[in-house]
Amino acid sequence: MTPSEMEARIVRYGDLVPCKTAFIDAHTPGSDQKENFTIIGGGVSESPDQHVHISEPHGFNIGAAGQPPKCRNSLHSHRTAEVFFVLKGRWRFFWGEHGDAGEVILEEGDIFNIPTNIFRGFENIGTDYGMIMAVLGGDDAGGGVIWAPHVIQDAQAHGLVLGENGKLYDTKKGESLPDGVGPMPLLSQEELDKVDRPTPMQVIGGYVRRYLDMVALASTGAPCKVIGETGILRDQRVDVDGGSATLAPGDTMSLPAGRSHTAVPSMTGEASLYRVVATDDPAGATWTG
Question: Which of 44, 175, 212, 272 is least surrounded by Cβ atoms within 10 Å, i.e. has the fewest?
């Protein structure tokens, strides 16, 4: 791999292109300052304005959410795994149909493997613009977002309508549902009753991993395996078949399958790298034992 070929597969943090109308709550007060980024794969954005940096299928999707202080992402769920790690800032994650089943505060570097079949949301509770990186299982990321009913209802009051085709229509811009396309149906009470409400002990004990704990587990020099084949390495420079590139915080690099590579620190001091690897496991519900 030549240096230019490597650089073409790197998405630099400073080059990320945000979408401010990615989801149905884009006009809802308290959620209207969100920025959504799709880095690898199309993710679950509902907006035609979403920029996709690397569209090549990888078996997973990598995206990010950027939010100023006090901005929140509304309650939703996914059909495949969603894993967050905090890149910048301090974040509160909460769950339950109305966000009242539990919460956890995460700092930079912490990982949250959010189970499927629960409504989850998150809020930047820091003092500066924050960023969290997200990994979604499957090439189609589970096919879209499942919103808590009140999120869809609140959005309609502010001009956004979600079609049953998963696309957004802004009535403030004169848009309306196309002929033959109905609104996204709300979950019935029977469906809502089947959504999980795990306790804080279940979630924090089973699905949260703190950055400093992972650093301690990786102190022998071997990767600390966090979720399956996903690991954390204390390094930043990546060498591939003779070429090399230096990655900075927030950068994402895609490596072709089967390419041999190494990763070493580019300077003295603490450095870490989150690695996401596709497996043969089908994307689906979270394994609970």
Answer: 212
